[in-house]
Design the sequence.
């Protein structure tokens, strides 16, 4: 009689993204391509979760044995109350976009800002230390991005926003956490501040589809040779980036932020390096 092999079949790693709506999300295409390229037995599902079902859905992560999920609009803030541990950066940003199930304990992270900075360094400006950075906008995305930028020890970060009070409040809040020289102001300061900026980052929605002719600031105010980055990835090249490129600036679009926030999440779940180029290709193919 031949000896029988005693191998236990392993279950796939379950992952997903919770949001409302969710059908448009490019995360499933990106992560399923990543799982396949990494040779991992796993699946990443779009999970339509309405706000009134969020608590049950989060409990379902443990009940169903999910390894983790991403959380997107409108749940990023509300989800925090249902988690066991919130990572320090997510607490400071006030939003969670990635949950890891560590043997029944749910840990919340925010990979948006860290992902943005990894993308900026890999794709446009390798060294951020000592740089003078201008951030246009003071909303949710700006908060995560500025937190992660501050960890890179730039010389200073100036936040300019259409509603000046929001920029002033955000700067003073981040300064109070010891994050360095961060100031806030209104767009009337743009000419003076942009004249000496090394890096200009648009975190506003100005220029996003369908308002593709909008710019957050007059591109002529940006110094030739500065790096200009835009969080918007629809369109892939905004008018701000197009005009900055014509003025001799290094430009960086928003697709990389989306890819790298996913890459950092993937690494939290799988514990192996994310196949970033496969992820980028999958997203571009899904447009
Ligand atoms: P948010 O919290 O609603 O903040 C919006 C910001 O944009 C505010 O500072 C607002 O200024 C400003 N703004 C909106 N319309 C404007 C206009 N026409 N002119 C000038 N300023 C304007 O939104 P958010 O979550 O921070 O998202 C902002 C942008 O980041 C969006 O375009 C989004 O697509 C992009 N984003 C990209 C990624 C990625 O993965 N690449 C991730 C997250 C977000 P006021 O305070 O004056 O209203």
Sequence:
């Amino acid at each position: 009689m031949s000896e029988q092999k005693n191998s236990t079949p392993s279950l796939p790693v379950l992952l997903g993204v919770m949001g409302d709506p969710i059908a448009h999300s490019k995360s499933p295409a990106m992560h399923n391509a990543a799982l396949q390229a990494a040779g991992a037995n796993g699946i990443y599902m779009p999970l339509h979760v309405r706000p009134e079902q969020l608590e049950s859905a989060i409990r379902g992560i443990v009940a169903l044995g999910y390894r983790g999920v991403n959380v997107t609009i409108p749940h990023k803030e509300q989800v925090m109350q249902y988690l066991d541990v919130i990572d320090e950066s997510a607490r400071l940003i006030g939003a969670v976009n990635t949950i890891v199930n560590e043997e029944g304990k749910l840990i919340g992270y925010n990979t948006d800002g860290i992902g943005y900075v990894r993308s900026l360094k890999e794709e446009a400006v390798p060294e951020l230390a000592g740089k003078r950075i201008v951030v246009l906008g003071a909303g949710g995305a700006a908060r995560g991005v500025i937190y992660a930028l501050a960890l890179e020890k730039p010389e200073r970060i100036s936040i300019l926003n259409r509603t000046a009070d929001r920029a002033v409040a955000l700067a003073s809040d981040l300064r109070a956490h010891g994050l360095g020289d961060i100031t806030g102001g209104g767009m009337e300061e743009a000419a003076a501040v942009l004249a000496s900026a090394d890096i200009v980052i648009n975190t506003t929605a100005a220029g996003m589809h369908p308002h593709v002719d909008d710019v957050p600031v007059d591109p002529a105010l940006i110094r030739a040779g500065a790096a200009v980055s835009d969080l918007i990835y629809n369109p892939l090249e905004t008018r701000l980036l197009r005009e900055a490129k014509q003025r001799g600036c290094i430009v960086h679009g928003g697709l990389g932020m989306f890819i790298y926030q996913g890459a950092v999440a993937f690494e939290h779940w799988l514990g192996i390096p994310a196949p970033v180029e496969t992820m980028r290709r999958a997203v571009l193919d899904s447009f």
Observations:
- The chain has two domains: 13-110+257-286, 113-253.
